[in-house]
Each structure stands twice: as structure tokens, then as C-alpha cells.
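Figure 3 (text version): C-alpha cells given as input.
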């Protein structure tokens, strides 16, 4: 079973309804896949989430699972949610808690008054006059710490960011960007570090993006030739996260001038080393003037395209574990 979209009209307005399968019976990976499918079927995102609840069957375990599912839609998904009570029954503690988190918004299906349901949906749409955009988890990596921090500030629109107590540790930043919640993890340079430290920071990086996982790894580079250290960093990333990371990686070239400058475009398109890296990461380079807030939309649009295209839609702790198994297997074969 997969999500299915139906289209119709209500009082002169086009209406798309997406019916999801029983999400509670799915694995976490399949939940992520279905949420991704649901959003893509009503692109660029749903206005309202209807949570069908049968009081007699809704447990605390169900509520925990529901909160996880809604977290995949974004940090403010409860604001856009309404409980639909499917059967007349005394409300349990778990149901009342969900109602509370939804601001009391609910509809009793046994009332058989669909006009009332549509009226409530219209009121919610008027109150929150924007779409639900799933949150994004991004990891900035590369050799140059200053460029990564500048990129983080530009993406989040913040002039000051807290720093890690140790410059060799991951640091996480968060904020609302273009109507969605964005989490940014700055991964410190890994090249040249002991293997134990590389593994520790790599795992911490993935853990900071739980439970959804990493939607995009962003390689931050200036418009300049790659150095030996840059090459070493890319090799370390490949060895640690495996080639699985390639599908989730894009390149961000940062400039403080016009990104359409012919000199900039010619360098990116003709430098053989840069082109080799672009080829490895699916030809997804983005050139952004970090002083121009409007250009952040272009960056997030590229990330959104990746999120909608990739199956699965994110690099999770499970993906990382599989990468380590691949690495161990490869080393064992090499030793033989």
C-alpha cells in the first residue's frame, strides 16, 4: 500500500486529498518514505493534516508513533493538524493529549456533517495561511571552517551562531528559513585525524539529525582550485560514509559578489578537478552570494528536489551502519 492522491473541487476551489496507508504498521524507514511521497503528491506541501483516531484502539504507544510521524512533516505540524474521531467512545488520556497538542481541533465522523468538516478545514487554512513544509536536516562539510560558518549564517539568516567548545567537534544550529524549520550541523574537517576521532564525529553528526536523518550533505567550497587537503577531506568522507553519501550530497560554492559573473561560471564549468567532484555528486553545484538572502531560496530548492527524488529520502543512522559494514567487508577482502 502507498499514498494515493484524489483531486476534486469544493465551492469552486481545487482540492487534493492524499490518503496514506496505515503508517503505524510501517518501519521508520518506510514512514519517512511515505511522508516524502505524501508531500510530493500535494506539492509543495499540505495545508492540513487530518489525524484519524479510533479512541478504543489509540494507546500511548500510538501517540508516541504519531508524534514521530508528525515530526517528519515539520516542527510545527501539530498547528496544522485536526483530530478526526472515527467512532463514538469515551476519550482516553492518550486521545485527550493529542487533542490538546492539536489545539482542541477535532471533527466527529459519526456526526456525518461533512460541510462542518470542510468549514473547519477552511478556518485552519485561513488561520495558518501557508503550507506545511517538512523540516530539513543539513550537514555542512569541507576543509574550510570559516566558509562553513559563513554559509551557516547565510542559510539561517543569523549574524551570530554559537560555536562548539572544541573546534574539532560537530556543532548544530537551528532556525526557520523560507517557512520551514532547518537544522544545520557543521561537521569539522576529518582529514588527518585518527580513525577513532573520525568515527566519533561522523556518528555524532548523524545522531544530531535524528530521528529523520540527513536530507543533504553540503560540500562548502570557495571558487578556487582544490587543494591537497580538500582532496584528502573528500576521500575521508567517502571512506567513512561510503558511496551511499553521494546521492545526498550537493556542492555549495560561496561568493560575495555576483554568482553569474562569467569568470565564476567559467571556472566552475571548466576546472577539471571541480568537474570531477561535480560528476561524483550528481552535477548539483549551486553558486550563492552569501550576502544575498534571496539566493538561499535557490539552495533550498535544490535540497528539496533531492529530498523528493532520493529513495530513501535521507541518510540515516541505519545507512551509516550499513556503510560501516561495507567498509569492514572491503577491508577483510583486501587483507585476503
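Below: residues designed for each position.
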Amino acid at each position: 500500500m502507498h499514498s494515493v492522491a484524489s483531486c476534486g473541487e469544493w465551492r469552486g476551489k481545487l482540492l487534493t486529498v492524499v490518503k496514506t496507508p496505515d503508517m503505524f504498521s510501517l518501519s521508520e524507514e518506510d514512514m519517512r518514505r511515505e511522508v516524502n511521497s505524501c508531500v510530493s503528491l500535494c506539492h509543495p506541501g499540505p495545508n492540513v493534516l487530518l489525524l484519524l483516531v479510533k479512541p478504543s484502539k489509540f494507546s500511548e504507544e500510538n501517540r508516541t508513533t504519531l508524534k514521530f510521524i508528525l515530526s517528519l512533516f515539520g516542527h510545527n505540524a501539530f498547528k496544522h493538524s485536526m483530530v478526526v474521531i472515527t467512532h463514538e467512545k469515551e476519550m482516553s488520556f492518550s486521545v485527550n493529549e493529542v487533542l490538546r497538542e492539536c489545539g482542541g481541533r477535532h471533527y466527529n465522523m459519526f456526526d456525518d456533517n461533512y460541510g462542518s468538516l470542510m468549514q473547519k478545514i477552511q478556518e485552519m487554512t485561513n488561520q495558518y495561511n501557508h503550507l506545511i513544509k517538512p523540516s530539513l536536516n543539513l550537514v555542512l562539510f569541507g576543509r574550510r571552517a570559516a566558509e562553513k560558518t559563513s554559509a551557516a549564517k547565510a542559510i539561517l539568516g543569523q549574524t551570530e551562531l554559537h560555536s562548539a567548545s572544541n573546534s574539532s567537534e560537530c556543532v548544530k544550529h537551528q532556525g526557520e528559513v523560507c517557512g520551514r524549520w532547518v537544522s544545520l550541523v557543521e561537521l569539522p574537517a576529518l582529514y588527518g585525524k585518527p580513525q577513532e576521532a573520525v568515527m566519533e564525529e561522523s556518528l555524532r553528526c548523524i545522531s544530531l539529525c535524528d530521528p529523520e536523518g540527513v536530507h543533504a550533505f553540503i560540500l562548502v567550497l570557495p571558487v578556487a582550485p582544490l587543494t591537497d587537503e580538500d582532496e584528502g577531506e573528500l576521500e575521508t568522507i567517502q571512506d567513512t560514509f561510503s558511496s551511499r553519501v553521494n546521492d545526498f550530497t550537493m556542492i555549495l560554492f560561496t561568493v560575495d559578489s555576483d554568482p553569474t559573473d562569467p569568470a565564476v561560471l567559467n571556472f566552475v564549468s571548466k576546472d577539471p578537478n571541480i568537474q570531477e567532484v561535480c560528476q561524483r555528486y550528481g552535477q548539483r553545484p549551486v553558486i550563492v552570494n552569501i550576502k544575498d538572502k534571496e539566493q538561499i531560496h535557490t539552495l533550498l530548492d535544490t535540497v528539496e528536489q533531492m529530498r523528493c527524488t532520493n529513495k530513501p529520502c535521507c541518510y540515516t543512522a541505519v545507512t551509516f551502519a550499513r556503510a560501516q559494514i561495507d567498509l569492514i567487508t572491503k577491508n577483510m577482502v583486501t587483507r585476503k
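The chain has a mean pLDDT of 88.
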